[in-house]
Specification:
There is one protein chain. The mean pLDDT is 89. Strand 23 (892-907) and strand 24 form a beta hairpin. The radius of gyration is 40 Å and the shape is elongated. It is an alpha/beta fold and 1012 residues long. The strands form 6 sheets. A 7-stranded parallel sheet has the order 11-16-10-17-18-9-19, covered by helices on one side. The longest helix is centred in the middle third of the chain and has 27 residues, at 437-463. It contains 37 helices and 26 strands. Helix content is 50%, strand content 13%. It has 8 domains: 2-78 and 176-268, 3-Layer(aba) Sandwich (Rossmann fold), CATH 3.40.50.300; 84-171; 297-354 and 580-674, P-loop containing nucleotide triphosphate hydrolases (Rossmann fold); 366-550, PCRA, domain 4 (Orthogonal Bundle); 682-725, no CATH class; 735-768, no CATH class; 777-859, no CATH class; 862-1012, no CATH class.
Length: 1012
C-alpha cells in the first residue's frame, strides 16, 4: 500500500512518520526508513533519541545506495572491487583510447579531461534515467541521419566499451539499483514490511523502479512530500507535485493499493512573518502582511564586498546581543564558489568561527604539485619552470636560499632542458665580471645544489620511458623516498601549525594518504596497461581532478556555509540567503554537456527520457529557493547585489520582488546608507572603519584613532595608513636607520639623482636596500655601452685622432676587433651556457663599434675639438673631484660619476671644454626634460669639470653637451653604393646643446652641417 504524507514546509510531515515508526516499534515491529544519503547520520541520531538504543535497533535507516549495497552483498552480487570516481575516469580514458580510431565526433578530444568527465556524466545520467544500451539501440533504428543520431551512436559504442572494461574487475554501483530491482523481484525482500521514505524532493528513474517494487511488496509504504493540496503546474510545488503523480502512476502500474493522502497543516504557532512568507511565496494571489517586519530583512548591497561585510557584522551582532549560537546560523548561497572565500574572510575578520560546507580541489596542494611537476619533467624534460615549481613546494631538502640561488643563475644564463644536466661554468654574477676564487667557490656550490635537485629526477625520468601503470606508481613512490618528501611534508605541517594555521597543517597528512590511495588506484585499475610518460601525465591530471578535500569542523559551535542544493541544516534559528539576484538565485539552468536542450526534447519524442527538461529544472530551482528561505525557524536575511562581481549592473531576483509585495513594510537595509557604527563588531572591523573615515574625519574617526594609538600592536598599521594619506615627501624618520642605509656622506651620481627626482621610493629600494631586478646574461644597453666606451678609449689613446684619420678603414676595423676580443676574454667569460648566442653577440657588437669609429674619424676631420680624456672619473680619488653639497646634519652630498669623453679646443687663448656621451640605447635628448630637472647628468658633469678640473683644463669655458649615437640603425642598402653614406642621416647626428658662440660652433663642425 502506498500512503503519501503531504504538507508545506515545516508542517510536521517528518514528525508524523516518526510517530508512526514509534508506534510500530512499540508493538514489536520492525521498519525500514529510507532517507537521502546526507541525512543518514542525522536520522539515526534522531531515532536513537526517540526510541532509545533498543528501539533504534529495530529501525533500519538506509539510503537507496546503502540499501542496494546491503542486499546485493547478501546474495553475493557485488563481490568485485568497488568503483570510485577516480577509477571511473581512468577506465573511461582507457575506453576512449581503445576505440579512438572508430570515433568521428570525439576522436580528436578523447584525451581531454573535460570530454572524459562529460562522458561519465552522460552515462551516469542514462543509468539514473533507466536508459539502457538496448533502448538506445532501438531508438537509433527509428532515427533519421543527423548529428544527434551520430552522437547517440558514438555514446552507445563508448558505453559498451567502458562497461566491458569495468565489468572485468569492478562492480559499478551506478548499476546497483537496476540489479536491486532484479533481487527484489526474485526474493521479495519487502513482503509484509513497513517502509517509510522521508526527506526527498524527487526521485530518479532507478529509484522509482525500486520504490515500485517496495510498494508492491510492503504492507505499507509511507512517503513524505513537501507540497500542498493544489495542482498548480506553475506553483512552487510543481516539482514535488510531478513526483507525487509519478508515485501514484507507478503504484497503480504494479497493482498496489493507494491510500488517501494524508495532508498535514501546521498546528504549532510560528513566527507570523515566516508564516506569511510561506503562505504567499510563489502564490498567484498574495495576502500582504501589513505590519512592519522584525524577523525578515532585505539588504541591498552596493557590491560583493559590502554584502559579505553586512552579513558578517550582522552575524556577530546577533551572537552578541540576541544570545544566538554560531551553530544556529546558516549562510546559504546558490553557488558556493561565488561566496565561500569572501564571506569566510569577513566572518573571520569579525571574530566569528565558521564551518564551510565545501570541498576543495587538491591541485594546488604542495605534495600534488610536487608529483605533477615530477611527471611533467619525466614527460617533457627538465624545463626550468617545472623544476622551480617542484622545488618551491618546500618538499625537497633544498633551503629557500638555495632554491633562489639556482633559480637566479638559471634565469640569468637562460638554463633550460639538458643544460640542467651538465656542469655550469659561467660566472655566477653574469657577464662583465672577472672569475675570482670566491666566484669559483660559488659556482661549485651552485653545481652541488643543481645535482641534489636533478639527480633523483633524472633517475625517475629514465624509469618513465616505457612502463606499466604499476611501474609508474612505484617510480613515484621511490622518487618521494629519494627526495625525502615524507619527512619534509611533516616539517611543513609543523611549520604551518606554528604559524597558527592548524587546518592547513592537518591537511598535509590527509593529502599524503590521498596520494598513496591514488597510486594504488593507478596500479590497480590500469593493471597491465602499457603507457608512455605523456599518456601517464594526462591520466594523472585526470585522476587528481576527481579528488577533493572536505573541510572538517574545527569546533562544535560554528556557522555553516554552503550552497542551497547541498548544505545540510537542521532548522537553524537564523538563515542568510545571499546573492538573491536575477538568474543567480533561483539559478537559470544551463544546458551544458553532450546534449543540448533541443537534443533532449527530440530524444523525449522518441520516448527516450533523459534528465529533466529546462522547465522542470526551473521548477526545481524555485522549490530550492523556497526551501532555503523557509529553512529558518526564527530570522531570515535576504541579500542581493546592485553590481555583480565584474561591476556590471545586477537586478534583484523574483524572490526579492515577491518579498516586497508580501511585506510592503519589510525592513530594508542599504549598505551605502548603513551607519558606520553597525560595521564595528571587532577590532579588525573597527580598524577598517577608521581607515575608511580617514579622509573625511569626524568624531567616530577621532575616537577610533585614539583607541588604536593606545594599542602597540597596531602602531605599524596606523603609521602605514597615515603615510598613505599624507602626500608629503617620503622620508626615513629614524636618523640612525638612514645613516646605516646611505652613510653620513652620501655619494650620488647624476643618474642616481635623476632616479630620486623621478621616484624616491625607487631610489630607496635600489640604492638603500640594494634591491636589483634579476637580469639575463645578455649584452644589455649598459653593458654594450661599457664595452664601446672601453674600445674607443683604447683605440683613441693608442692612435690619437690623427693616427685614426690616417688609417685605412680595413686596418681600423681590424684594430677594433682585436681590442673587442681582448675585452671579451677579460670581462665577458660566458662558459658553455651562452654557446652560439655569445658568438652572435660578439659579431653584432663588432659591427656597431666599427660604425661608431667611422663616425669618429669623420668628426675628427671636420672639427677643432680634440679628445683629451676617456672614461674620466669624477670621484674623491678620481681624476676630477666630486661636486660637494653640505647637508644640515654635517654630512656631505657628493656627486660622482664617469664621463665617456672630454674634448677641448683652444681659440684665441681661451680653452673650451665639452663632454660627449655615447648612447647605444637610442635615447633621444629632450631639452624640456632639462627644464624639469631630468636628464641633467651630462650638464652636472660639464660644470663639475669646469669647477673642479682647473688643474687639467685651466679656466675653461663650458662649450656644450653632446650625445653621440653608438648603434647601427637598420636600413635598406643599395647595391654599388658606399654603405657608410647610406641610411637615415638623422640616425648619425649628435644631439644636445652647445654654447651660443659662432666660433665655437664652427670649431665643432667646419661646415656647420649639424652632424657633429
Amino acid at each position: 500500500m502506498l500512503r503519501l504524507v503531504t504538507g508545506r514546509i515545516g508542517s510536521g510531515k517528518t514528525t508524523r512518520i516518526y510517530n508512526e515508526i514509534q508506534s510500530r516499534i512499540a508493538r514489536g515491529g520492525e521498519v525500514t526508513l529510507i532517507v537521502p544519503e546526507q541525512y543518514s547520520f542525522h536520522t539515526e541520531k534522531k531515532m536513537l533519541e526517540l526510541l532509545g538504543e533498543k528501539g533504534a535497533d529495530s529501525v533500519n535507516v538506509v539510503s537507496f545506495s546503502f540499501l542496494a549495497e546491503n542486499l546485493l552483498k547478501k546474495y553475493g552480487l557485488n563481490s568485485k572491487k568497488a568503483l570510485d570516481d577516480s577509477t571511473r575516469a581512468m577506465l573511461m580514458s582507457v575506453a576512449l583510447d581503445e576505440i579512438g580510431d572508430d570515433l568521428k565526433l570525439y576522436s580528436r578530444h578523447r584525451y581531454s579531461s573535460a570530454v572524459i568527465m562529460q562522458m561519465l556524466k552522460t552515462i551516469k545520467e542514462f543509468r539514473q534515467c533507466s536508459v539502457t544500451p538496448e533502448l538506445i539501440e532501438q531508438t537509433l533504428g527509428r532515427m533519421e541521419p543527423s548529428l544527434l543520431r551520430d552522437k547517440l551512436e558514438e555514446i552507445l559504442l563508448i558505453d559498451r566499451t567502458y562497461s566491458a572494461i569495468v565489468s572485468q574487475n569492478y562492480f559499478d554501483d551506478e548499476c546497483a539499483l537496476d540489479i536491486l530491482c532484479g533481487v527484489l523481484d526474485k526474493y521479495r525482500n519487502f513482503d509484509g514490511a513497513q517502509v517509510f521514505v522521508d526527506g526527498f524532493r524527487g526521485f530518479t528513474a532507478q529509484e522509482y523502479a525500486v520504490l515500485e517494487r517496495i510498494t508492491a511488496q510492503a504492507d505499507e509504504t509511507w512517503i513524505t512530500l513537501c507540497t500542498d493540496e493544489s495542482n498548480d503546474p506553475f506553483g512552487v510545488f510543481a516539482h514535488t507535485l510531478r513526483t507525487k503523480r509519478n508515485l501514484i502512476r507507478r503504484a497503480r502500474a504494479c497493482g498496489a493499493e493507494i491510500a488517501p493522502p494524508i495532508h498535514i497543516t501546521r498546528s504549532d504557532e510560528i513566527n507570523p512573518e515566516l508564516e506569511a512568507l510561506e503562505e504567499n511565496l510563489y502564490e498567484g494571489e498574495i495576502t500582504p502582511y501589513v505590519s512592519e517586519t522584525e524577523k525578515i530583512v532585505l539588504c541591498s548591497a552596493e557590491d560583493f564586498e559590502s554584502e559579505c561585510e553586512f552579513v558578517a557584522c550582522t552575524v556577530k551582532r546577533l551572537i552578541r546581543t540576541k544570545g544566538i549560537r554560531c551553530r544556529e546560523i546558516a549562510i546559504i548561497s546558490r553557488s558556493e564558489s561565488n561566496y565561500s572565500r569572501q564571506i569566510r574572510s569577513a566572518l573571520i575578520k569579525n571574530g566569528v568561527p565558521v564551518f564551510e560546507d565545501k570541498r576543495q580541489p587538491i591541485t594546488s596542494e604542495p605534495l600534488i604539485e610536487f608529483v605533477r611537476s615530477a611527471i611533467e619533467i619525466g614527460s617533457a624534460g627538465f624545463s626550468t619552470d617545472a623544476l622551480m615549481r617542484l622545488a618551491k613546494t618546500g618538499l625537497t631538502d633544498l633551503s629557500i636560499e638555495e632554491i633562489s640561488d639556482i633559480e637566479n643563475y638559471a634565469l640569468m644564463w637562460q638554463i633550460n632542458g639538458r643544460k640542467w644536466l651538465g656542469e655550469w661554468t659561467a660566472h655566477p654574477n653574469g657577464l662583465g665580471e672577472k672569475m675570482l676564487e670566491e666566484n669559483i667557490n660559488e659556482l661549485r656550490r651552485l653545481n652541488e645544489i643543481r645535482v641534489r635537485l636533478v639527480s633523483p629526477l633524472q633517475k625517475f625520468r629514465v624509469k618513465l620511458k616505457e612502463f606499466t601503470a604499476l611501474e609508474a606508481a612505484q617510480a613515484i613512490y621511490y622518487l618521494l623516498a629519494d627526495m625525502n618528501v615524507a619527512e619534509n611534508l611533516k616539517k611543513l605541517a609543523v611549520d604551518l601549525n606554528n604559524r597558527s594555521q592548524p587546518e592547513l597543517a592537518s591537511e598535509q597528512n590527509r593529502i599524503w594518504n590521498l596520494l598513496m590511495e591514488m597510486l594504488d588506484r593507478v596500479a590497480d585499475s590500469l593493471e597491465g596497461v602499457r603507457l608512455n610518460a605523456s599518456r601517464f601525465r594526462d591520466l594523472f591530471d585526470l585522476l587528481i581532478s576527481t579528488y577533493s578535500l572536505g573541510n572538517l569542523p574545527q569546533g562544535l559551535d560554528e556557522i555553516t556555509i554552503g550552497s542551497a542544493d547541498r548544505v545540510k541544516t537542521s532548522a537553524p534559528r537564523v538563515v542568510f540567503a545571499v546573492g538573491m539576484n536575477d538568474g543567480v538565485f533561483p539559478m537559470i539552468p544551463n544546458s551544458s554537456g553532450i546534449f543540448s536542450e533541443n537534443d533532449r526534447r527530440t530524444l523525449a519524442e522518441f520516448e527516450l527520457k533523459t534528465d529533466d527538461s529546462y522547465e522542470e529544472k526551473m521548477m526545481e530551482e524555485r522549490f530550492i529557493a523556497y526551501s532555503t528561505l523557509l529553512s529558518t525557524s526564527d530570522r531570515l536575511y535576504v541579500t542581493y547585489l546592485r553590481k555583480d562581481i565584474n561591476g556590471a549592473q545586477a537586478s534583484p531576483s523574483e524572490i526579492v520582488t515577491q518579498i516586497r509585495k508580501i511585506f510592503p513594510k519589510v525592513r530594508l537595509v542599504d549598505t551605502v546608507c548603513t551607519d558606520d557604527m553597525d560595521y564595528i563588531e571587532s577590532r579588525e572591523s573597527a580598524f577598517d572603519v577608521m581607515a575608511r573615515l580617514t579622509a573625511s574625519g569626524g568624531a567616530l574617526h577621532s575616537t577610533l584613532e585614539s583607541y588604536f594609538e593606545a594599542q602597540p600592536e597596531y602602531a605599524g598599521r596606523l603609521a602605514a595608513l597615515r603615510r598613505s594619506i599624507n602626500k608629503g615627501e617620503m622620508r626615513i624618520d629614524d636618523h640612525e636607520t638612514a645613516t646605516r642605509l646611505f652613510g653620513l656622506n652620501m655619494y650620488m651620481s647624476a643618474s642616481r639623482t635623476e632616479v630620486y627626482h623621478k621616484c624616491p621610493f625607487e631610489y630607496f629600494c635600489k640604492y638603500g636596500l640594494n634591491a636589483q631586478p634579476r637580469k639575463t646574461a645578455e649584452l644589455d644597453p649598459m653593458q654594450k655601452g661599457t664595452a664601446i666606451h672601453y674600445i674607443l678609449e683604447k683605440l683613441i689613446s693608442a692612435y690619437g685622432s690623427d693616427g685614426l684619420t690616417a688609417m685605412e678603414k680595413t686596418e681600423r676595423d681590424r684594430c677594433v676587433i682585436d681590442i673587442l676580443e681582448d675585452y671579451f676574454k677579460e670581462n665577458l667569460t660566458a662558459g658553455e651556457e651562452m654557446g652560439e648566442r655569445f658568438d652572435y653577440l660578439f659579431r653584432q657588437l663588432g659591427l656597431i663599434v666599427c660604425e661608431v669609429v667611422d663616425r669618429l674619424v669623420a668628426e675628427f676631420r671636420n672639427s677643432d675639438f680634440v679628445p683629451v680624456a676617456f672614461e674620466l672619473s669624477i670621484d674623491n680619488d678620481g681624476e676630477v673631484g666630486t661636486y660637494d653639497i653640505p647637508l644640515p646634519d654635517g654630512g656631505m652630498l657628493k656627486l660622482k660619476g664617469s664621463v665617456d669623453r672630454v674634448d677641448v679646443a683652444e681659440m684665441n687663448g681661451t680653452t673650451y671644454v665639452r663632454v660627449v656621451d655615447y648612447k647605444s640605447s637610442g635615447k633621444k635628448f629632450d631639452l624640456n626634460e632639462v627644464f624639469y630637472g631630468l636628464n641633467m647628468q651630462m650638464l652636472i658633469y660639464l660644470f663639475t669639470l669646469v669647477r673642479n678640473g682647473k688643474a687639467r683644463y685651466g679656466d675653461a669655458i663650458p662649450a656644450g653637451v653632446l650625445y653621440m649615437p653608438a648603434k647601427v640603425s637598420a636600413f635598406t642598402a643599395e647595391r654599388g653604393k658606399d654603405l657608410g653614406k647610406q641610411g637615415n642621416p638623422n640616425d648619425k647626428k649628435m644631439q644636445g646643446f652647445v654654447l651660443e658662440n659662432a666660433d665655437v660652433i664652427v670649431a665643432m663642425e667646419y661646415d656647420g652641417g649639424g652632424v657633429y
